[in-house]
Amino acid sequence: MSTKTAATAAGSTARKVVGSLGVLGAAAAVAGLGTFGSFTDSTSVDTTISSGTVSIDLTEPAAIPVTTAGFVPGDTLTRPVTLVNDGDTALAAVNLSATAAASSVLTTDATEGLQLSLKSCAVAWTQGGTPAAPTWTCASGEKALGSGAVLAPIALGAVNSLAVGGTDHLAFSISLPTAADNAFQGKTAALSLTFTATQRTGTAR
Prior knowledge:
- The chain folds into 2 domains: 2-32; 56-199, Immunoglobulin-like.
- The relative contact order is 0.21.
- The protein contains 2 helices and 10 strands; from the N terminus they run H-E-E-E-H-E-E-E-E-E-E-E.
- By secondary structure, it is α+β, with helices and mostly antiparallel strands.
- It has helices at residues 2-33, 105-108; strands at 56-59, 76-85, 91-100, 115-121, 126-129, 134-137, 143-149, 154-155, 167-175, 191-199.
- 18% of the residues lie in helices and 32% in strands.
- Strand 5 and strand 6 (134-137) form a beta hairpin.
- The chain has a 5-stranded antiparallel sheet with strand order 1-2-9-4-7, with no helix packed on it. Strands 8-3-10 form a 3-stranded antiparallel sheet, with no helix packed on it.
């Protein structure tokens, strides 16, 4: 008899719990129906973002030779180039770097190997000398921008081409120091000179 009584009591409790859960579920469903009755409004603003273009252009007032033979210690090759910022974005920096197609003592010896220097002129460079051995002089505003071993990069600093439309009259020189000895005879260096522009620092617009 006591066993049946216990079972009946447990069953009654279970039904009460289930009934309570059912009531809570119904209350939640009713509360959810009320969210569809709110007022709304919206407005908008249009904006258009156009990315800038970083671009520099290099022209050669005089032909740059593909091959210069018979270089000896003390020789210098100088050629002018015109650098223009033809993009629509100001620049933070412009650098000149040289790379060699193959390694040789001409490019690995930083002291007695080939040397690179870069100058600017306020006006276009003036050609002198002969067609076979031209020289280049600056009539006004000559400025040294940097020099060193031929593969060492040169930062141009505060040049005109940092600004949109800015133009720089540049002249690079490649030379073999007089200290170069017999170890430099019969060597070849195929060089590629590259000017690289870096965008200005991003700002709040």
